[in-house]
Amino acid sequence: MSRVRSIGLSLLLFVAMVSVWEAGVRILAVPQFILPAPSKIAEALWRGLASGVYFEHLYYTLVSTVLGFLLGSTLGFSLGTGVALSRKFEFFLYPYIVMFQSLPKIALAPLIVIWFGLGLSSKVINAALVAFFPLLVNTIVGLRSADEDRVSLMRSLAASERQIFWMLRLPNSLPFVMAGLDVAMIFALIGAIVGEFVGAKHGLGMLIQSMNFTMDVSGQFSVLLILSIVGLILNRCISLIRKRVLFWDPSEKERTEA
């Protein structure tokens, strides 16, 4: 019942916010090109969905986001594992990774478009670059958080480093890795949209840019609404995977009960 009550309160809060927004725009006579009313945004959303334009661009953005997330997560986990388990690897490579990550991705996006074109490749790479660092850091922290007493105990029992990794370090790092995946998924969506802002033939980011040129603010808000819902759904997908993977973790059990 508490979960149903929480969902009901969230819906009531949403309805109240939208009602205040609608009333405020109408009472204050705010121009539509500055802040459209929720009813106008709903109309623009319906037009876009009915015409099928939003679905076409949404598909392109989702493909870019998911592929970028998979690529960035794979690189982040692989390099994070190397840095966490090898001091030489960390000494030679990690400073360059940090230096590259400090570069603003918005500044790199035009170069990526020049190198890889206006197609899907540039959006996937841009999303991967943004998504890869959170998982890299969380993987390093997670693998190094293993109890050294347990590591010493396994070594005293003649366990190999590979056995220590699979039986102790990796299971211990999974809560950190899953937290990194939560952030990486949202960052991948942001990276894909930034890439579409800079240059694209399809995608919701490109659609926002074209609406900006025509001063279709209601349409822009409707696309932003779609993006927020997409971000929420992607986050829920990672949460479901987290529950499956971390069924043994006490903190995950507490979250599920809450």
Structure explained in plain terms:
- The protein is built from 11 helices and no strands.
- It has 258 residues and is mostly helical.
- The longest helix has 38 residues, at 161-198.
In brief:
This protein is an all-alpha fold and 258 residues long. Helix content is 86%, strand content 0%.
Number of helices: 11
Total number of strands: 0
Rg over alpha carbons:
22 Å
Rough shape? globular
Q: Return the structural class.
A: mainly alpha
Question: End-to-end distance, in Å?
Answer: 11 Å
Spans where pLDDT lies below 50 across 5 or more residues:
none
Question: Hey, roughly how much beta strand do the residues contain?
Answer: under 5%
Order of helices and strands: HHHHHHHHHHH
State the helicity in percent bands. Answer: over 70%
Mean pLDDT across every amino acid position: 86
Task: Sketch the major β-sheet.
Answer: none
Topology at a glance:
Blueprint: H1 2-28, H2 38-51, H3 53-85, H4 87-102, H5 105-116, H6 120-144, H7 148-156, H8 161-198, H9 204-213, H10 217-245, H11 250-257
Helix pairs in contact: 2-10, 3-4, 3-6, 3-8, 3-9, 5-6, 5-8, 6-8, 8-9, 8-10, 9-10
